[in-house]
Design goal:
Number of helices: 6
Largest sheet: 4 strands, antiparallel
Shape: globular
Strand content: 15-25%
CATH architecture of the largest domain: 3-Layer(aba) Sandwich
Number of domains: 2
């Protein structure tokens, strides 16, 4: 895996993400053991926008899954927003992941039976925000992302770029410490991909959102 490109904005800032000696093994101790991640070290400052690059199968998705705690590491530490996530119980980790980590997936992963605004408000409702306030915040964010005229459309009624904007809004709605994207433009055509990447850069620049 190539060393991630980093755009460090301030050396005095504490890292929003700090990874130390991270290892991930599959089928550990068996003849078909795979050592997917070997001693990863990574420090990311708040407001950085970075990309993890490498050949197919080098461990990019595995690393994102470790950071997002969609899978457990074999050893090592991951500190997010000054919290050592290895010390969290399963229930606290679920709440931490919901509140501190935003996800943007290649295939959008929107709920097909919910409208755009319902998809975006869902994380707020799960956090205990009352429905009226959650709805207004979701509407406001979608309007900021140019989706004000698609609030009540189902995913099947939206283009790929529009679905990804809804996915971005859902990732942003809880104001997470970091947002992780696993090939977020991989299923889009070149023009729409460029549009979505411009959106990411704008969010990073204006909101100082770590991506």
């Amino acid at each position: 895996m190539k060393k991630p490109n980093q755009n460090i904005k301030s050396s005095s800032q504490k890292p929003i993400l700090l990874i130390s000696k991270l290892h991930k093994k599959y089928n550990e101790g068996k003849p078909n053991e795979v050592h997917a991640l070997k001693g990863i070290e990574l420090s990311v400052k708040k407001g950085d926008m970075m990309a993890i690059m490498g050949a197919s199968g080098c461990g990019k998705t595995t690393l994102l899954n470790m950071i997002g705690h969609l899978d457990k590491s074999s050893s090592g530490s991951i500190i997010i927003d000054e919290v050592d996530t290895s010390l969290l119980s399963d229930s606290k980790m679920t709440a931490f992941r919901r509140d501190k980590i935003g996800f943007i997936f290649q295939l959008f992963n929107l709920f097909p039976f919910l409208t755009a605004v319902e998809n975006v408000e869902t994380p707020l409702l799960l956090s205990g925000i009352r429905s009226g306030l959650a709805r207004e915040q979701a509407k406001m964010l979608l309007r900021e992302l140019g989706m004000g005229d698609r609030l009540y459309h189902l995913p099947t009624e939206l283009s790929g770029g529009q679905q990804q904007r809804v996915a971005v809004a859902r990732a942003l709605i809880n104001q997470p410490a970091i947002i992780l994207g696993d090939e977020p433009t991989g299923d889009l055509d070149s023009a729409t991909s460029a549009e979505v990447m411009d959106l990411f850069r704008r969010i990073n620049r204006i909101n100082q959102q770590t991506l």
